[in-house]
Amino acid sequence: MARTRIAGITVGQAPxxxxxxxxxxxxxxxxxxxxxxxxxxxxxxxVERDLAPEPxxxxxxxxMRDGSQVTFSGTKVLPLxxxxxxxxEREGARAIIxxxxxxxxxxxxxxxxxxxxxxxxxxxxxxxxxxxVAVMVPEPSQVEQARVWWGEHGVKVDVVSASPYASIGGVRxxxxxxxxxxxxxxxxxxxxxxxxxxxxxxxASGLDVLLPRTLVAxxxxxxxx
Length: 225
Fold this sequence. Notes:
By secondary structure, the protein is an alpha/beta fold. It is 40% helix and 20% strand. A four-stranded parallel β-sheet has the order 2-1-5-6, sandwiched between helices. A four-stranded parallel β-sheet has the order 8-7-9-10, with helices on both faces. Strands 3-4 form a two-stranded antiparallel ribbon. Helix 1 crosses helix 8 (212-224), helix 4 (116-128) packs across helix 8 (212-224) and helix 6 packs parallel to helix 7. The longest helix is centred in the middle third of the chain and has 17 residues, at 74-90. The two termini are 14 Å apart.
């Protein structure tokens, strides 16, 4: 029996081998995950030259195929994300997950298009019950941006930073700094954070942890699985 095709579109390069196992662990066995990358046709030099953030731009962080981290403009990468959405639909995807917790405008699509950010924020707001939550982003340059986005969705936050594309020790160390906080729980605010990092952050901080990659995979599996 043929499985239903689900597209995962990373704003970096595919395949996101660091993400596949965690996503597929939450997807129904009736679903097939096919990955696409906005930066698949670009080199690191291309990204640094053509997609560098301008003052006031949303800053996104993702992963290249070789595992290296890249930082770029959310605005400038949008046309490349749209190209991959169009490609995934042509190739038979029944739903598409944008594998990034950044803020996106409504892009053109015919099948369900799942943006992790509004889903992640809504679940966190419901669970927090008005309490402050801790949020971990990859880069210090994203801290203020995260405060604004979470605040716009009605969530009070303490924001810290540690890259999911570096050593897990950095995540553990940063999470340990939250142990004396009065936060309700910790949100790992990037699709790059792994279940191993979630577990390390939970142990180091003493807080419960919400992970976006497994959350969105569970929702899509509920919808189509």
